[in-house]
Amino acid sequence: MLNLMYITNRPEIARIAEESGVDRIFIDMEYIGKSDRQGGMDTVQSHHTVEDIRELRKYLKNSKLMVRCNPLHSATSEYGSSKEEIDAIIESGADLVMLPYFKTVKEVETFIRFVDGKAQTLPLVETPEAVACIDEILHLDGLDEIFIGLNDLSLGYGKKFMFELLTDGTLDTLCEKFRTKRLPYGFGGIAALGKGLLPSELVIAEHYRLGSTCAILSRSFCNTNVIKELDTVSLIFDKGLKDIRAFEKDCENGRVDFIKNRKQVEYITQKIVADIEKGL
Q1: Given 51, 112, 214, 230, which is the most exposed site by the fewest CB atoms within 10 A?
Q2: CA distances (Å), 123 to each of 6, 52, 99, in order?
Q3: SS3 for 30?
Q4: Are 115 and 66 in contact (CB under 8 A)?
Q5: What angle do CA 234, 44, 269 make, to 5 degrees?
Q6: Residue 114: closest CA among 87, 80, 141, 143
Q7: Please, what is the end-to-end C-alpha distance for the chain in angstroms?
Q8: Per-residue pLDDT tens for 223-244?
Q9: Contact, 174 vs 125, CB < 8 A?
Q10: What pLDDT sits at residue 37?
Q11: Is 24:96 a contact under the CB 8 Å cutoff?
Q12: Where are the domains of the chain?
């Protein structure tokens, strides 16, 4: 089964997610440079804090606590250095630390040194430069997992739709490299079954075809900025997780035709890109 992750800094939502079977609660502290590089797109920009880590640590019993830090940076008058940030993240109780938007082997090497074995490391591959040096990165000691960020990586390659990376060979190539190194890996986000421009079940089947081990439950799975009633949130999580887990069993037991699924992914992706190009 995939390790499913959900982004929130709210204890009441984290508890609902944990009770429904979400494996990792995701605190997202990344904000430095994020708005500029995403060009005003409607993407999740949480700007969570170290205090949020401490607060959620009090409530979680089974789910792991994962934190995305900022890209590596020096101290300024507005914020401390990466070393200070990562130290605070770990001291506050993070189980896993994710490094976003790196471009060089040196950055990942420095990140691993800052974490220093005190939490699991999870570099986020989301730049073409990171892909270009991925073989060198995979030779580093101290990598625990790796994740592919489809949104920023697709922007970096000038794609019109992030799931084009599923159809142009980019993910196949990267996942094969990760498998060869026996390094756990995942990519992108998934919605509830039947939801999403590219329906979630098609994406989940691609996770299984590619050997992925984790995925983020996207904002569209349950947007708690819009859905305010906790009972409704709980129902969405309970049903959504049960549906996803049932479909995963179909994938595991050979009841999903991955070749046919791949063709559907290609067809729908091509149609979505064509519609975008027409301005639809």
Answers
A1: 51
A2: 17, 21, 5
A3: coil
A4: no
A5: 95
A6: 87
A7: 36
A8: 999 999 999 999 999 999 999 9
A9: yes
A10: 64
A11: yes
A12: 3-277
The answer for residues whose C-beta is within 8 angstroms of residue 69's C-beta and 6 or more apart is: 29, 30, 82, 85, 86, 89, 97, 98, 99, 100
Residue 93 φ/ψ region, left for φ over 0, alpha for ψ in the -120 to 50 degree band, beta for the rest? left
Pairwise CA distance, residues 140 & 105, whole Å: 9
- Mean pLDDT, rounded, for 117-145: 98
Task: Please tell me whether the overall predicted TM-score, pTM, comes out greater than 0.85 for this model.
Answer: yes
CA distance 41 to 44: 9
Task: Give the number of other CB atoms < 10 A from CB of residue 279.
Answer: 5
Structure tokens at 103: 């471009």
Q: What are the tokens at 11?
A: 């204890």
Identify whether the C-beta of residue 141 lies closer than 8 Å to the C-beta of residue 111: no
Write the CA distances from 46 to 64, 179, 225, integer angstroms.
19, 31, 11
What's the CATH number of domain 3-277, 3.30.1370.100, 3.40.50.1100, 3.20.20.60, 3.40.50.620? 3.20.20.60
